[in-house]
Amino acid sequence: MRRGSANAKWALLSAPMLLTLAIVFAVPIGWLIALSFFSSTGPAQVGDEVSLENYRNFITDPFYYRIIFNTFWLGGVVVLCCLIVGYPVSYFLARTKSRWRGLLLFLVVAPLLVSAVVRNIGWFPILSNTGLINTVLLKSGLISQPVPLISNLTGVVIGLVHALLPFMILTLTTVIQRIEPELEEAAANLGAGPIRAFVKVMLPLTLPGIVGGSLLVFTMAIAAYTTPVIMGGNKFLVMSTFIGQQFRTVLDYPLGATSAAVLMVLAGLLSVLAIKFGASRTEMAR
User: Fold this and answer.
1) How confident is the model at residue 286 (pLDDT cuts 50, 70, 90)?
2) Which long-range contacts (CB under 8 A, 24 or more apart) does 30-33 make?
3) Does 281 have pLDDT greater than 80?
4) Torsion sign (Cα): 167, 168, 169, 172
5) pLDDT of 1 higher than 50
6) Which of the chain's ends, N or C, has fewer CB atoms near its CB within 10 Å?
7) What is the rounded distance in angstroms from the CA atom of residue 192 to the CA atom of residue 181?
8) What global pTM score does this model have?
9) Average pLDDT for residues 23-27, to the nearest whole number?
10) What does the alpha-carbon distance between residue 248 and residue 256 come to, in Å, rounded to a whole number?
11) Residue 95 — φ and ψ, nearest 5°?
12) Residue 204: per-residue pLDDT
């Protein structure tokens, strides 16, 4: 009886939260998915007939495959950059005993405290054709004409890495802190060099953090809208910007809803595969 009353109490306390989540997330997403099964009869006009025409067109048109490829290529590049930059920083933050550790952690999360618009616009004086980098390179004679660092894939990657790197660093730092330093010392005492100790000890033990951080960064990268619009200059089309065009410019709501549904399904499938891969690799390491 006590367990039943406790369960009922928790259900009653959770009801407002579940209702809020349903109103804020479940209902809009459900309506979006339902909208994808109708056809567009004109700008901002939706027909009454239910069909799979939108999905059929999406699957058979190579144009959409190119957008999907751009989206997931962008996500993969951002994840790789965040891992390369974030792992050493995470290791240092997890192992250091410096009194400045708190300040360093604040500097890591500082980009999250700035508006995405302000953060992205702040890159223009640095990356534009007349910006700091190109000016230095031109005056030093290393290049004869400005290098395009913005309004392309490079600019979008830089903006997203700047925004999402804190998530990777914080995730990896938490995992590395749980690993005893004595394990690395034992590997060194047994004759393992730094690289071998990293590959045989640290990498398998931190794999859950790598998978978790990569999934978090990847899903946020492929769903990002503000950074691709500002840093890409509408010249690098990904799913998020394409969906925005359909809803705000073309006014083809069913096609925009179809694209959003496809993106959610693909991101979900990749997340499940990544989690299973990480779990299997962790079991093998044990």
Assistant:
1) low
2) 32/257, 32/260, 32/261, 33/257, 33/261
3) no
4) positive
5) no
6) N
7) 15
8) 0.84
9) 80
10) 10
11) -100, -20
12) 83
Residues composing the chain: 286
SS3 per-residue string spanning the chain: CHHHHHHHHHHHHHHHHHHHHHHHHHHHHHHHHHHCCEEEEECCEEEEEECCHHHHHHHHCHHHHHHHHHHHHHHHHHHHHHHHHHHHHHHHHHHCCCCCHHHHHHHHHHHHHCCHHHHHHCCHHHHCCCCHHHHHHHHHCCCCCCCCCCCCHHHHHHHHHHHHHHHHHHHHHHHHHCCCHHHHHHHHHCCCCHHHHHHHHHHHHCHHHHHHHHHHHHHHHHHCCHHHHHHHCCCCCCHHHHHHHHHHHHCCHHHHHHHHHHHHHHHHHHHHHHHHHHHHHHHHHC
Q: Phi first, then psi: what are they for 50, rounded to 5°?
A: -85, 130
List the domain boundaries for the chain. Answer: 63-285
Q: Distance between CA 77 and CA 224 in Å, rounded? A: 14
φ, ψ at 43 (rounded to 5°): -55, 120
Exposed/middle/buried for residue 83 (C-beta within 10 Å: 0-12, 13-18, 19+):
middle
| Predicted confidence (pLDDT) at residue 216 exceeds the cutoff of 80 | yes
Answer yes or no: are the C-beta atoms of 148 and 129 closer than 8 Å.
yes
- Mean pLDDT over residues 158-174, rounded? 92
What's the CATH class of domain 63-285? mainly alpha
Query: At a CB cut-off of 8 Å and minimum separation 6, what does 143 contact?
Result: 134, 137
Q: What's the CA gap between 86 and 178, in Å, rounded? A: 17
